[in-house]
Amino acid sequence: MTRVTDSLLIRGKQIKNRIVMAPVYTFPFNGVSEDSFYNIEHIEHYTRRAAGGMGLIIVASTQVYGAADGTKQWTANNIAILKQIAADCHAYGTIVFMQLSCGNVDINHLSTDDIHSMQTDMKSAALSACEMGFDGVEFHFAHGFALCKFLDASFNQRNDQYGNSAMNRARILTELLPDIRSNTNVDFIISVRMGEYMPESRDGIEIARIFEKAGIDLLDISFGMESPERPVPDGFPCSSVTYSGCNIKKEVSIPVIAVGDIRTEEQIRFLIENDYVDLVAIGRGMLTDPEFANHIKNNEPIRQCWRCGGVPEKCLWFTDYHNCPAMK
Ligand SMILES: Cc1cc2nc3c(=O)[nH]c(=O)nc-3n(C[C@H](O)[C@H](O)[C@H](O)COP(=O)(O)O)c2cc1C
């Protein structure tokens, strides 16, 4: 039986346990410095969670489209901060990725040249992440953003090689992979965050298999254009988003992360010990309890997120975490 404290090897890199810090954008930290998107608060934030025992940390979405070549996010100052985050995570034995996002543009209006330029930025950001010492990247194909729109058959109306078939809808990344592989370390992990419903479950499954065949190392299953409303089977103690992760896991051989309202040790053990998924990601719970993973490991109580407003979109970390009631 797999245990939460068991390690997992991906491309020769050891993730020391099954608990992942989900990518959670730290809006309140932004805008502190003139020439930097990242700042000292980001270093402290991620280092505290690495010290808190996380197996894998996914640094929240960094915009790459139009940004990889030297806008505010990719200045020398930012690179120094990101390098420090990677080094600090490693000092605690935590594997660390950058999540790369291509913003929220309408992909149906992009020219082929625009798409190629998006791909150039995706590649260049992945290479930078590798150079900065990150163990891998996660391409953000979830939550209705630009890359997600490519995947979703009901949104993607393109009639060229980036639309129609599932193979084409995944092409923005699959045709880029060999180039990223040959320009990054052999153990550099490339993962994708995506949903199951694209818009039907079978579409997400087909895409997941295409990514696997193309050489993606790890799938992080959240939701696509919108959160699934489907009820979960009787006795399944987690959310429908989490259930999506379990569904995709049945269809692929690469490791799968599940996420979405996972709050308790019982839920985590259920998912891992029954091999429903390989890793579990914690978002808001990791904000309110930086020691989340150590607390699970040591059988200690977790400082729970209060679920303000019920859905992640209402989380006060989108605006001012100083008002987060669980932090007081
Ligand atoms: C404040 C906030 C920021 C988030 N930022 C990101 C992000 O940058 N990228 C991403 O893929 N998901 C993001 N998410 C979604 C989380 O990764 C996670 O999937 C979601 O919060 C559900 O997990 P939870 O119930 O454990 O919080 C964000 C969520 C919150 C609350």
Identify the strand order in the major beta sheet.
3-4-5-6-7-8-9-10
* Bound compounds: flavin mononucleotide
Helical content class: 25-40%
What kind of sheet is the major sheet? 8 strands, parallel, barrel
The 3D shape can be described as: globular
Radius of gyration, taken over Cα atoms and rounded to an integer in Å? 19 Å
The helix-strand sequence is: EEEHEHEHEHHHHEHEHEHEHH
Number of domains: 1
Quote the distance from N terminus to C terminus: 38 Å
What is the CATH level 1 assignment?
Alpha Beta
Average per-residue pLDDT, rounded, comes to 93
Query: Which stretches are poorly predicted, pLDDT < 50 over at least 5 residues?
Result: none
- Structural class, from helix and strand content? alpha/beta
Write the CATH homologous superfamily.
Aldolase class I
Tell me the strand percentage band: 5-15%
Q: Which fold name is given in CATH as the topology?
A: TIM Barrel
Proper CATH architecture: Alpha-Beta Barrel
Tally of separate helices:
12
Number of separate strands? 10
